[in-house]
Amino acid sequence: MRKMYKRILALACVLTSMFALASCGNTEQENTTTQDIQTEQGNNDTVVSEAAGGLHFMRISGKQEYRVVGLGLYEEPDVIIPDTYKGLPVTEIGREAFGKNNDSCAYITSIKIGKNVTRINEVAFAGCERIAEIFIPIGVTEIQASAFSQCNSNAIIYCEAETQPEGWDTNWNPHDLSVEWGATSKAKN
Fold this sequence. Notes:
Elements: H1 2-22, E1 36-42, E2 45-52, E3 55-59, E4 66-70, E5 78-80, E6 84-85, E7 88-93, E8 110-112, E9 119-120, E10 133-136, E11 142-143, E12 156-159, E13 178-181
Parallel strand pairs: 4-7, 5-8, 7-9, 8-10, 9-11, 10-12, 12-13
Antiparallel strand pairs: 1-2, 2-3, 3-4, 6-7
């Protein structure tokens, strides 16, 4: 019985050593635009942030929708937030998604927001100092405080809505950037 115990112990040591060596491989992540970036737990749903076309998206917990949460490696001057991602609507722009804490913000000169976006979270574009034009579709019913703070003072915001919607925070445009109400998407490239 003692011999068998020694063999089992030796086998366990060998397997543990093999597992430890196998996990010492390359820890660098692949640089691929469709790779999952991070996983979080929220409201009993797993929420996965994914990258596509340089933008990062996160599935909104408990909904069949996505939110844009960042730029990733995006270095193009014209950002187009798509209407859908993986066949589901993109309905939100996340907090600080394009904000000054994001290095790629320095490249952005124009932003066209997709028609399914209904909400722009606080400081979403704060500090994007090179933005010259922003197009906001009529479906955006909520913009939180300081969404466009510290942007280029010469920027023009083109809004399809004829007047400021009720759901927009009174401080959504704290630096009074120029706003053209009743604009069509043709006004912006």
